[in-house]
Structures are given as structure tokens and as C-alpha cells.
Design goal:
It contains four helices and 66 strands. A hairpin with a 2-residue loop joins strand 36 and strand 37 (401-405).
Amino acid sequence: MKNILLSILALLLTISVGAQEFTNFYTAYREHLCIVTDDSLIYVGCPNAINIYYRDGSYKTSIGVGGVVYSAVRDNNGNLWFGSCGYNNNNGGCLIKHDGSSWEIIPLIDSFVYSDITSITCDRDNNIWVAVNANSGLDAAKISKFDGSTWYDYTTFNDTLVLVGVDKIVCDTNNVIFAGTKFDNVPGLFEIIAISETDTTIFDYINYNYTVACKHSSLVDRQNRVWFGGCFGHINSFENGVWTVHDNYSVFGNTSFTAIFQDNQNRMWLGAGDDIFIQNDTSWIKNDFLNEQDVVISDIKSDSDEHIWLAGYFDYDDIRGGCLIKQVADSFELMYPKSHIGYPREIAFNEDKIWLGKSYLSFFDGETWNNSFTADNISSDITTSICTDSNGDLWYGTSTGLFKQTAEQAAEQILQLCGEDITGIQCIASYNNYLWVKALERNLYKFDGTEWSKIDMTNAAASSFLKIVPRDENEIWITSTLGALKYDGTNWTDYTTDSGLMSNSVNDIAFQNDSVWIATIRGIALVYNQEVSILHNDSAFVTGFSRFNAIKVDKNGTKWAGCINGVLKFDDFSSEYLYPTGFEEEIYSITLDPNDNIWFCGRRAVSKYTFDNNGIENIRTKPKFLTFYPNPATDELNFELSTDIKNDILEIYSTNGVVIYQQKVQSGTNKIDIENLPVGMYLVRIRGANLYGKFVKE
């Protein structure tokens, strides 16, 4: 039997962004795209993060941000500015300011939907200039200036030329802004625009011998020459009103210039994919070291001590993402961060470590994250599942087999269980001294602390498992794409759409006394006394808010459910969406540690939720309920409000959480005209008074 939960969850959703109870651990293994330095640290822009390194190249920490950070600059007062693409998914690009102690997000005003800041510079008056492009498929762009409080946009020049593209932007010592541009009525040509306080000049190939298309890099050097580098081996410099072409195909070939730099000896450096070209007195010298490392150079900068640093990234399928590179004599040293690696989807705990799996294996020892790149005795294979047993030993599965790792020894591969060879592992779970392992096909094994046995899966509805969730030493529940399965030690029972689930794609299961909560891709189900009730919102399905990957019940009985866009936290009276990192992101798993802290594996970070100092979460005030009369009704409802409620707003919701009616209410007797409402059940909320109710229209 299927029931609809009338716990008001669909209509009482609120949003909590960046709650203070969360501690976030970001992976720093991302593409390194741009560099800026202050007096003591090196900052590297990455997708969804800014990595921070010490001057010796060792990793300090990462700051989570919205969007991809392609460019950065230090202003005249020492503040650092970063340009972001696609800030917080739906709000377009933004500026990120760091004054050495705090971080500030400054959204673009009246920007395009899903806009990108592709480049950033600072002029001599300390204004911040950015190149902005619409990434929503529109041919639209602008150059914007921020003076610390107000935005100024430049989109049209010479009264007729309208920007449709803008890339790199720099400011010379004369306070002239140079930007790579493309205009709507000049098809196929790419130009440079120079904006001064009194004039605007557009440089193109026909009139000024400018040859660089698709500007990927730019620089104002120590002699105030302006440089732009692009694809097809083209690089130009501007000095005294003249553009000079530096194309040298015998050396450069048909490359793209991704970074331009000038060192303290006035030598020019060109980053060209995974090559570095360094200028000497008469020619360009190619350095092949980075080519051998398969790292693509995206930026080159020096710090105040004239040490040279490079930002780089690897091929898309390389789990390292990118790295910081330090020049050492005539060679380079690749500096890797110490953070977890990949996008983990499971967490396990033993006495002194926090382990991350269902990705590349990483662990946290209380001070530092370690992985196979930074520590010995860690598997470099992708793990399919991890758990720790009652002895604190780590168990993990890979596509090649089952492994056990103790604190003192390297991982040991378990080649056989119950006399059978095992290879690929789908999932592992533990409960007290018991361990369950699901291998390929219909091979499910149980360890009781002494010996292994094989569980008969003949009557199991699914042969492929996503997750094993033990309820006690005998009963386990299984998630699969064919529904939820329960095994009580003897019999198999399945729960599917025929039983009342809203979907057979089940991702997680949690227990609360006699209740079983099931997370599916179309909502959450509750199994109680063999009956299935559902909690979901069809209108939210397309946005991802009803696509649930994980669910857990905390020590207070509050449910936490991870979906594509964040975390739904709910109890019997209300609910709210939380964003652990402050941004919408997919939450893959939720786990309770031995101290009842809640851990989330998300797309951006691994996040830890800690309860307040009393160890008990602040309990919400339970709502009072309205009484309507008559109920059911056909045309009019009556209800009473106490004298302490002077003025408030009444809201009527449909059962899928949509507000369909509002009116002002006050103390005493109030009436609601429902004559025009369709027949059905409705939910009511008095917004400020914490009052709720429901009625039926006949």
C-alpha cells in the first residue's frame, strides 16, 4: 500500500547556505589555471577552488569558490582579485576579493545569464577591469570596470561596433586598457581594442598588422610593451603605436601560446601547451622538460623574490588534475598538494584515520590528507567500496579483487572466499564483528568474525548491488537499480514500484527504530509495518532536488538526505536544504562517524557537520496546528487566531508544495474563500506565527 506523507515537508523548505557547523575539505587536485602572489603565499585559480601554497611550494589549503577561476591580479593596495566563470551555477560570473584575511564575493551586476569572467586586470587608479562573455550560447560580451562600489559596462564602440567576444585584458603603465575582442559586424576577424581616458582605438590586421586570433595569453612587460599570444604560432607585441609580429614557425610550429612572462633578466617566456620557449639574445630556446611530464602550461608568474612559478594541468582523464611548477636552476619541479584525491563517495573510520574511497584511496590522520602520490602504503587503484571492521582494519574492493589493510602492514589481497576465486568487488559493509562482501555475479559472502560463508542469492531479485546496508548482525538491505532488497538471514524480500516506491533506482537506505527510509532518484520512501509512504515533489524532479543519492538518521532522529543539488534536512515538522560548501553541488554519500558527526562526500568537497557544544542539536519549536471549520468545505473556511497575532500572511499550498493562494490574516475569526479551488486536499501555513493545517475542498 502506498501513502502520501503529509508531514508538510514539501512546502516548508528553506535554504541554508554556508552553515557555520560545516568544515569543508576540498580536493586540491584540480587543473591549475592562473597564479597570483602576495608577500608570503602563492594563490592558484582552479575549477571551484583557489589553492594556496607556501613560498617553498608546499601546499597550505584550498578555498572553495563558485565556478572556474581563470585569471587573477594583485591591486595597488595588495588585495588579490580573482575572476570566476559561472559563479554558483545560476548567478553568472563574479569577482572574488581577498584582502589577506577575509574573502568577499562581488557578483557582476546586470550581467548575462551564465556569464564568464575570462580575464582580469587592475589599472593605475586601482579600478578592476574584467573581460566578460555570455556562455549560454549567446554571441554577447562586454568589458566591465569595477571601482570598488559601482560597475561600468562597455559593450558598443564607435556607435556601430557591438562586442560578441572578449578574451584577454591588460593595462599598461599609461593607464590604457588593451583587450582582445570580436565584433558582430566584422565576421572572421579578431581585434585588439585600446581604451584610454580620452580615446578608443581598434587594432586589426588590415590597418595595423595585428595577426593574433583567439587570444590565449597577454602581458605588459617591464618596458611597457603589450603582448598577445594566440593559436597557430602567432604572437604580437605593441610598442610606440606599432604592432610587431614575432611568428617563428621554425621554432614555434603551429602551437598555441597559453602564457607570456618576462623574467628579471628581461627574457621573454612563452608557455605553449606542454612546451616552454625562453628568449635569449638572438633566438628562442625550447625547454622539453614539461613536455616529458605531459603538463600544459596555463600561466607563468614570479614572486617578490623573483622565483618563477608556473601553473599547469594534465589531460582530462589524469586524476592529478594539475600542479604548481617551480623553476629550479635550468629545470622545473612539480609541486603537488596534500589533499584527498578524486571525488570520493564513501567514508570509513578507524582509531586514527578517516578513509575516503569509491574513488582513489585517501586518508586523513588528523592533520594532513594523504594519498598514493604523497604517502607510501596506499593503493593507487580506484576503489569500488571501503569499510573498516571492529578491529579497525580497512577493507576495500577494486575491479581486480578484495583487499585488507592493517595499520602495521601493507594491503593484502584476498584471492578466495569459501573456496571460490573472487575478482571484481561491487560493495562491502560491516556491522560489529560481521562483514559482507558482494563480488560479481550472484556471489555474496558473510564473515562472522571467525569464518566466511556464502549467502544463497537464488531468490534475490537483483544480482548487481549498489550498496549493502546492515540493520543488525543478520538483516541486511540492498540498494540496486531494480529496487530495494531485504535479506533477514533466510528469506529475500524486494521493494519496488509495485510495492509503492516512486522509482526502482534505489541509492541508499537508513533505519530509525522500526522505520526504514529509502532514497531513490525520484524521492524518499518510508517503509513502516510493511506499508510504503512516499515523500517527493514531482515539480522539483527536473531540478535535481528529488534525485536522492544518500540518506542517514542522526542521533536526534533528524533525517539528512543528499541529492544532486545539496542536502535535505528534515524531521516531523519542517525541513530545509543545506549547502555544506555554500554552493549547489551533488552529494554522493552521508556517513556518521563514531562521535556522531555527519560527513558528506560532495562534488566540491568532503564536508563535516559538527553539533553544538552540548552535543544535542537545538530543537526546533514544534508548530501549532490550525483548526478549520467546516472541514471538508465547499466554498468557505473559518478559523481562529489568538490575540497575540496582529497581522500575518496565510499561504495555501498544493500537495506538491506550490503556493497557490495568499491573503492577510489577523487575530480573531478569519475566513478563506475556497470556492474557486479545485477539489482536493490543501496545506496551509501562517507564515510568521509557526501555524500549520490542512483542509479538504469538496
